[in-house]
Batch of 3 targets.
Target 1
Amino acid sequence: MDKYVCDACGWVYDPAKGDPDHGVAPGTAFVDLPDDWTCPECGVGKDSFSKQE
């Protein structure tokens, strides 16, 4: 699964790790994150993330 990086602060969403502190289980693909999910570091929305090359 692809990793996504926050364009605002550089935090990387790794689907293998998920975001358990915010209720996202490991193995959750970025596209499957809830629409209201935000970056745990800076609070921007999913639309501010880019696929990590």
Note: The radius of gyration is 10 Å.
Target 2
Amino acid sequence: MIAPDIFDRALRRARRDRALANYGEHDFLRDFMLEGIADRLTMVRREFADVLDLGCFAGGLAIPGGARIARVDAGFGFARAMSGVQGDEDCLPFADASFDLVVSAGVLDSVNDLPGALTLARRVLRPDGLFLAAFVGAGSLATLRACLREAEGDRPVARLHPQVDVRAAGDLLMRAGFALPVADGETLTVRYRDLFGLLGDLRGMAGANIMPGRTPLRRDTLARTAEAFAARADPDGRTPERFEIVFMTGWAPDASQPQPARRGSGRTSLADALRLPSTATEL
């Protein structure tokens, strides 16, 4: 039995194509992710010859050393503009062991088969290849969620995507077979003059609702949502909205990597490690 898609694949492609024309006006979130990925790359002392930009949008990924960069995007427009390949992240059109580095910024939160996408990312890496990713995680858009619940009363509708938290992200990396997996988070707060500025950014970054069976937001509900959003404004008239960014780091397994000690193989007692006396003294 095949599980139904969480997200509408055709609509996801269409929304990305719609966002292409003005994406540069709404790309602050991806820029924040790429900056975080670049910071993590500075701690890696090695060069990369072949790199995959997984979900490339309008580019922006800079790899030092003149690496060859292949790009893939679910949207035809972004893929064509970046001389890349159109494809979904959970259906990669690349052979195993094709890349030294896979980077993904801003797309894994809307992939239907996230465990499958991570497994494919690990498979296209060469041994000891590096995977770095960032996406919008659990806790994001808390203000918008609260305003929608308030506006819709006893009959709330699922309008925002399900989200993955840091702990689950780490578990997914392990499940996909990555070595030395690390997941961590950073927070970005953006202050909006009104609800429509936030909604415009979500549409402009191709981050609006793409779940099947969407219910249109009625005008009266939208008006109540806007009122609730405005009621949460700071004294200067701007309402803060929070984006929780989850970062993922993992390595394709290789025999050269540090290995955890076999359980029970330790020969040092806890008392010795802490430099405590072997007998207890009553205080």
Note: Residues 28-41 form the longest helix (14 residues).
Target 3
Amino acid sequence: MAEVLVVTSKVKKLIKEKGDMNTSAATIEILSKAIEKLCLKGVESAKADGRKTVMDRDIIIDHI
């Protein structure tokens, strides 16, 4: 398993409160991978703009 980049307890709490469902370990893994991809895209965008700071505009979420 890769490094966890989300707060597992908060994800589980949200899913439990909003859907009255449990959360699998695989869910936490895939969310962490998604966060990593978003961060890496943000880094590349900031670099392309000549910045050393990742900003909100560098994080593009396509499917929300």
Note: DSSP finds two helices and no strands in the chain.
